[in-house]
Structure formats: C-alpha cells, structure tokens
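Key result, reporting period 2: structure in, sequence out.
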C-alpha cells in the first residue's frame, strides 16, 4: 500500500457547465501518474452520475452546490488526508463556484473550512459580461435560455446544443445574470454583494485560458482576474500556436478539449509546484494581473 505523506498535493476538480465529471478522468490520471498527487473529480449536480435531475419541480442555483455540496466533498478528503495541501481547480463555471465557496467561508469566518486550501486555479474561466465579451451572440443566447427555462421549468441543454441533458432553471438564470450584470450573485445567496469578498481572499489564485477560446478569450479572463486581490492573483494566456494540441483546434472546442490532452499539464503542475515552493506566499513578480509566462 502506498504511503501518503502530509506534503502530498490534493487537487479537487469541478467541471464546466454541463460537463460530466468522467470527462476529466484522463486529466486526473495524468496528474496522478506524473506527480504522485491525489486528484478528486467532483460530479456537477444534475450531470453524469449525479442522482439529481433538473425538472420543473427540481431546481437549484449556483448557490446550491456551494452551500450544500462543496463542504461535504472537502470533508470527505480531509477525513482521510487532514493535513495535506489542497488545490482547487475549476473549469469555466467551476472556478466561479469555487470562488463563491471561498467567499462564503470568508464571510462566515469559517477558518476550519479554509484550512489547508493552498490555491485556486481557474482554467478557461472568465467574465462573460456582454459589455466586455467580444461575442455578438452571447446576449441573445442568454435571452433565449431564460425564455426556454421559464417556459419549461428547466433547460434542455443537450437538445439546444449548450449545456448538459437537463440544466436547472435557477442555475441557468445565474449564468445569464452574469452576462447582463457583470456579477456572480446567485439568486439564493444570503450574503449581499458576495462578489466583493473575492478581493478579501488571501490564497494564491491563477486564471488561465487559451488565446483561441471563443467562450473565455483572454480579455474575459483578465477581467475576471481583476475581481480578486492583485497581490495574490495572476493570469496567463496559453498561445495556441505554441502547442500542437491547440494549434488547429476550433475556438468553440478549445474551451473543453484542453482537459483531454497533455499540453495543459505543465501549466497546472508548474503553478502548483511554484506555489508550494514559495510557501503559499506569492512573490511581487508572480502576484500580478500582468500576463505571466511559464
């Protein structure tokens, strides 16, 4: 039986909207084999193996997994690995949800829950506010999603070509609201202006995206990074021309297909190892909103 040391890194991955947890199994396997890390993949509520299914009578918002699921998932890991450093990795909306959970714990002064959280990494995540996002169709898409969700009581994402088989009305409303208002305030959240607490987070945070990602282009990621404390936060743009996996990848596929390859691994590993080496205290060089190069 392999001995797990207290220094062994634990990575917890939360999927993008509509993506089942099993999609990240290859990424998790690579990170484990290359680094001897422990990697856990969450199942997004309502997707994959989850027993929840969105319907007119079964609804949830961004806040539901933040308030009910994340603490349970982390507690399961802490029961087995009470002192190991934990890095949270969120893909797209997964980063937003992890940020909300960290803000919730900060607002509620739950130091025990925050213990051992060594860093937050967001991949292909960014602000989708229509005022800064270059897409000409994003605003119209949000209006269509809202109309269909209200009419049916849930959103048939797979049938509509966006999201999973069944998406909860409240979850999609929160997604749409972030397009209209440049805000991440879930409608069920009891804490007013929760996004302001992002500035109070005092752990290393890294956001990265691909330059050919149509959903979260570099400007989107940069604007999201600006929501956090600049001393602890950095962002990075991966240039597709420098990576064979991404060079000819269409922009509408770049947003998700990075998780199935190996080109992303050095970017994840490099930042986590750098963070550990600096004892979780970002230097003046790395903790900046300026684009960093690995």
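The corresponding designed sequence is given below.
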């Amino acid at each position: 039986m392999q001995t797990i040391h207290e220094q062994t890194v634990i990575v917890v991955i939360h999927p993008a909207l509509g993506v089942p947890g099993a999609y990240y199994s290859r990424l998790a396997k690579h990170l484990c084999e290359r680094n001897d890390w422990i990697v856990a993949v969450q199942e997004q509520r309502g997707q994959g193996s989850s027993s929840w299914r969105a319907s007119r009578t079964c609804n949830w918002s961004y806040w539901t997994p933040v308030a009910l699921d994340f603490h349970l998932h982390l507690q399961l890991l802490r029961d087995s690995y009470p002192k190991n450093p934990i890095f949270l990795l969120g893909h797209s909306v997964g980063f937003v949800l992890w940020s909300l959970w960290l803000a919730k714990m900060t607002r509620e002064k739950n130091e025990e829950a925050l213990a051992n959280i060594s860093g937050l990494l967001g991949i292909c995540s960014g602000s989708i506010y229509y005022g800064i996002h270059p897409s000409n169709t994003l605003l119209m898409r949000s209006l269509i999603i809202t109309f269909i969700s209200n009419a049916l009581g849930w959103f048939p994402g797979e049938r509509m070509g966006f999201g999973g088989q069944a998406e909860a009305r409240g979850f999609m409303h929160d997604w749409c609201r972030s397009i209209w208002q440049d805000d991440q305030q879930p409608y069920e959240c009891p804490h007013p202006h929760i996004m302001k607490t992002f500035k109070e987070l005092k752990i290393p945070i890294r956001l990265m995206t691909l330059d050919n990602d149509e959903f979260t282009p570099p400007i989107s990621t940069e604007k999201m990074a600006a929501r956090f404390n600049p001393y602890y936060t950095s962002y990075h743009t991966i240039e597709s021309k420098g990576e064979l996996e991404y060079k000819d990848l269409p922009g509408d596929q770049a947003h998700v297909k990075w998780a199935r390859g190996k080109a992303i691994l050095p970017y994840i590993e490099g930042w986590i190892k750098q963070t550990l080496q600096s004892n979780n205290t970002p230097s003046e060089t790395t903790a900046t909103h300026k684009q960093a190069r690995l």
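The first helix runs from residue 25 to 35. The CA atoms of residues 231 and 287 lie 5 Å apart. This case is discussed further under Risks and Mitigation.
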